[in-house]
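Reply to dn_fold:

You asked what the input looked like. This is it:
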Amino acid sequence: MKVQIDSQLCQGHGRCYDLAPDLFGEDDEGYATLTALTADGNVPEGREGDIRLAAANCPESAVLVHEEALNDRR
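and this is what came back:
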């Protein structure tokens, strides 16, 4: 599973980093970022539910979840 943040959509509501602060962070202006655990876009094993919850709670749909690895698509 992969995760991305669409910086064009993010409005800095902070729900993602409130729900999973070790997976999502914030920049100096309060916009969502990925942390060291997710910086490469890979979701740590066992944390898929947290990523899905954060995505479901983003009012701007800025947390993008890819159920399969991007390079696994044919």
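The chain has a mean pLDDT of 94.
Hope that clears it up.
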